[in-house]
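Regression test case RT-17, inverse folding.

Input:
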């Protein structure tokens, strides 16, 4: 549960510490006092977008911290431990938003820096915010389907349907792709055969073009190369050549070494130079012996080079790309022979996937049909308590034309809120206030299944008042029996039903508008309820009316407790009868 919310330098809030307790917490205040800012602060803790515009004028950053008691959430403690985040039963989520467009928002969990996505993942396991836009979301078919599946605990079946539909879609896509490729190959069969034959007959080899280029240069310049080699051999090993001339140096080097042995290094260098020149002469002779003027071979090389040039120009500019084009052409031609067998295999895959999908969708449909009846009955039971005594609620399932990843049917919530009227789609018959109350009825039912401990209701009381407001307040108080509830409201009837009442006020401090909050009890709470009633908060009549609302809330709580005990006893009696 959320035990404390700390806000600093956010919009018009300077520094606020908002204490929250188990049960039903109501937040009230004048319009513009800062109630929506507090909801926005909670949004930052569950990963909503952080903007520098939120930072209070003159401050360098805004900070929001939420302190949560998670002692009873062993699953969350384990998940945090796996992320390396230690906790002793208390969890602190923190978000910091810098002023100015250049800064980046930062987030921490128990002092450990985390990404905004990790903060959101953790925060959404702790807090669930329900506002007026959530009520509007009820009009969307996907939202209605999700609500039904959540109520029917059909997550496993829904996942199975999505998985089998994905396999079915993949198999159908593979058939379509193969059929397209085969049709394309049939159209291009003659050309593909020509490509494959032309490249195969050329018998190209990797690197062949480079070797032919070298051979062509040697053949073209054969006479010049032989002349150059001859000149080199004559200079090294001919009469008066370098080897003969430096051979005479052996005698003085020997004499030097006999007189001064330290000159042995000169002999070593001489020997190395001699053998190097001798190796040059030998290799030059061998190279020259291999050079021959062969016009026939040159013609053959040039013809081969022309073949390679023509093919590589057509098929990508290199021997590698040409060989690849030949392989691709052969593969497409092979497809004409193998496609029939492959298509039969894929068609069997489709049949198997269709069978799996139908089986998974049937299980989901059965669960949805059962859940639709139970959800409709549960909501109808709640509607009188929310000021709609003649209301009827139906969950209509309609078969889809094509299989879907969401199952074989669409869902539509239909209501008849007045006696004698037929049920129509929720979007066509519900006003803003009625829609909010239908949403609240659904939330009170789904809350029993929801593992999120703290529910935030942001002004879902729009469009209602009077006795209906009391009923909505009672419904929120009922939800607070299993969850912590935090409601931002304008209605005194709802605020009076809260276990804890917090007031946000706006005032000028140091010439700057700021908001502050305080927990009100006893006469201070009477004052706030009297103000919310719209009369003179100081008048005896307004105050007496406020006391009556608070007293009726206590009486309603006692009555609900007694009624619950009676229902529990009756239920136990029924169970005993069934056992007997």
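Golden output:
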């Amino acid at each position: 549960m959320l035990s404390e919310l700390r806000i600093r330098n956010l919009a018009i809030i300077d520094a606020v510490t908002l204490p929250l307790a188990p049960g039903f917490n109501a937040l009230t205040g004048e319009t513009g006092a800062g109630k929506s800012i507090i909801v926005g602060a909670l949004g930052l803790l569950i990963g909503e977008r952080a903007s520098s515009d939120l930072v209070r004028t003159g401050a360098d950053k805004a900070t929001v911290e939420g302190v949560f008691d998670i002692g009873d959430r062993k699953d969350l403690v384990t998940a945090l431990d796996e992320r390396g985040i230690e906790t002793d039963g208390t969890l602190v989520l923190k978000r910091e938003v810098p002023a100015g467009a250049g800064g980046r928002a930062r987030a921490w969990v128990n002092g450990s820096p985390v990404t905004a996505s990790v903060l959101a993942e953790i925060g959404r396991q702790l807090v669930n915010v329900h506002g007026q836009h959530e009520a509007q979301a009820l009009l969307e078919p996907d939202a209605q389907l999700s609500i039904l599946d959540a109520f029917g605990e059909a997550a496993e079946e829904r996942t199975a349907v999505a998985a089998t539909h994905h396999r079915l879609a993949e198999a159908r896509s593979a058939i379509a792709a193969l059929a397209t490729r085969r049709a394309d190959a049939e159209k291009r069969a003659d050309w593909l055969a020509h490509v494959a034959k032309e490249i195969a007959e050329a018998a190209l080899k990797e690197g062949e073009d480079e070797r032919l280029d070298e051979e062509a240069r040697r053949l073209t310049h054969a006479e010049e190369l032989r002349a150059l080699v001859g000149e080199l051999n004559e200079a090294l090993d001919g009469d008066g050549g370098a080897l003969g001339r430096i051979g005479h140096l052996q005698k003085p080097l020997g004499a030097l070494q006999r007189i001064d042995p330290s000159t042995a290094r000169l002999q070593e260098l001489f020997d190395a130079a001699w053998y190097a020149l001798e190796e040059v002469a030998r290799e030059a002779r061998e190279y020259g012996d291999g050079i021959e003027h062969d016009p026939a071979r040159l013609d053959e090389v040039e013809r081969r080079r022309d073949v390679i040039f023509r093919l590589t120009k057509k098929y990508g500019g290199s021997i590698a790309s040409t060989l690849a084009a030949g392989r691709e052409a052969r593969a497409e031609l092979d497809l004409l022979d193998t496609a029939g067998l492959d298509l039969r295999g894929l068609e069997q895959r489709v049949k198997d996937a269709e069978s799996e999908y139908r089986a998974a969708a049937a299980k989901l449909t059965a669960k949805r049909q059962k859940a639709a009846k139970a959800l409709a009955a549960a909501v109808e039971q709640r509607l009188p308590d929310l000021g709609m005594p003649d209301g009827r609620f139906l969950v209509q399932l309609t078969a889809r034309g094509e299989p879907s990843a969401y199952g074989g049917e669409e869902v539509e919530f239909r209501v008849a809120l007045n006696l004698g009227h037929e049920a129509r789609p929720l979007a066509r018959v519900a006003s803003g206030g009625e829609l909010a109350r239908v949403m609240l009825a659904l939330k009170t039912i789904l809350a029993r299944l929801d593992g999120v401990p703290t529910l935030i209701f942001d002004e879902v009381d729009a469009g209602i008042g009077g006795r209906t407001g009391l009923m909505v307040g009672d419904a929120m108080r009922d939800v607070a029996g299993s969850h912590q509830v935090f409601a931002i409201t304008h209605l005194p009837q709802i605020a009076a039903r809260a276990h804890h009442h917090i007031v946000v006020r706006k005032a000028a401090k140091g010439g700057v508008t700021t908001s502050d909050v305080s927990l009100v009890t006893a006469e201070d709470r009477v004052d706030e309820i009297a103000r919310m009633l719209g009369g003179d908060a100081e008048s005896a009549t307004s105050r007496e009316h406020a006391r009556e609302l608070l007293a009726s809330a206590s009486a309603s709580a006692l009555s609900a407790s007694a009624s619950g005990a009676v229902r529990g006893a009756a239920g136990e009696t029924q169970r005993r009868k069934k056992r007997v």
